[in-house]
């Protein structure tokens, strides 16, 4: 029996999802997108998990869409138009599920993250990259502008830098990605797993309800004008303050003791 293309391992309130088609550089094939959607749906309903790590096996984190699969779709009577529209719509759906998940999602990136693979990194809430990792939205090099990856990329890095990457197809290294804000930090390759797990453990140790409230509010307010964002965020804090465990957390801080969270 073949290994699953996407695996999940839970430990210490953290779920690790692993893209597991190394022979295809963990490409976002139709099957991989379906597997990710299923996994995200399960996580959305799972209140035992407080953080998620997304990683890949083999030489690369993710090399984007499966070009061989895409080319095969051209055999359809419409030349593949319907298949392409469906592919990009399903990919967009999966990418948008990440910020909507109640748990923070951390990309653990190594090797390369290209095109839709770079989009996947940009869609995650946080990212840690190994030294030597390369990032690119390089579709333009083969005549396919990375328009859907552009959506996530341009919401992560400065506009002119994103446009240069998109129009030149030039790769950037991990340290440039950190400087631009695409990843949170760069670590030696041998420390990638431990550093990512340490970040996930730090997040998972917080009051889950507060983090869930905060993540949802983060993405909601960032789309609002400043005055509306403050009004919205103020009510979010009121709602957060009314939680029993928030009361307990504040009391514990004032009493200099560990909170007794339910």
From TrEMBL:
Function: May play a role in fatty acid biosynthesis and insulin sensitivity.
Record has NAD as a keyword: no
InterPro entries: ClpP/crotonase-like_dom_sf, Enoyl-CoA_hydra/iso, Enoyl-CoA_hydra_C, Mitochondrial_ECH-domain
Similarity remark: Belongs to the enoyl-CoA hydratase/isomerase family.
Molecular-function GO terms, alphabetical: hydro-lyase activity
Pfam families: ECH_1
Protein name: Enoyl-CoA hydratase domain-containing protein 3, mitochondrial
Any coiled-coil regions, as ranges: none
Keywords annotated in UniProt: Fatty acid metabolism, Lipid metabolism, Transit peptide
GO terms (BP aspect): fatty acid metabolic process
Cross-referenced PANTHER family: ENOYL-COA HYDRATASE DOMAIN-CONTAINING PROTEIN 3, MITOCHONDRIAL (PTHR43602:SF1), PTHR43602
């Amino acid at each position: 029996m073949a290994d699953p293309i996407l695996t999940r391992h839970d430990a210490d309130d953290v779920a690790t999802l692993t893209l597991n088609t190394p022979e295809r550089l963990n490409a976002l094939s139709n099957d991989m997108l379906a597997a990710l959607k299923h996994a995200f749906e399960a996580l959305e309903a799972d209140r035992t998990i407080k953080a998620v790590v997304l990683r890949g096996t083999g030489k690369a984190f993710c090399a984007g869409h499966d070009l061989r699969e895409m080319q095969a779709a051209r055999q359809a009577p419409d030349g593949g138009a319907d298949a392409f529209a469906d592919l990009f719509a399903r990919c967009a759906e999966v990418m948008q599920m990440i910020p909507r998940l109640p748990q923070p999602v951390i990309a653990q990136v190594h090797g390369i993250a290209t095109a839709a693979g770079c989009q996947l990194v940009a869609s995650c809430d946080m990212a840690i990259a190994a030294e030597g990792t390369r990032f690119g939205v390089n579709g333009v090099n083969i005549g396919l502008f990375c328009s859907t990856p552009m959506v996530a990329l341009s919401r992560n890095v400065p506009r002119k830098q994103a446009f240069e990457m998109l129009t030149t197809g030039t790769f950037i290294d991990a340290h440039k990605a950190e400087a631009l804000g695409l990843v949170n930090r760069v670590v030696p390759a041998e420390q990638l797993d431990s550093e990512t797990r340490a970040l996930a453990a730090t997040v998972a140790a917080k009051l889950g309800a507060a983090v869930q409230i905060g993540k949802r509010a983060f993405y909601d307010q960032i789309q609002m004008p400043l005055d509306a964002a403050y009004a919205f965020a103020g009510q979010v804090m009121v709602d957060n303050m009314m939680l029993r465990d928030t009361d307990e957390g504040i009391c514990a801080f004032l009493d200099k003791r560990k909170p007794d969270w339910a």
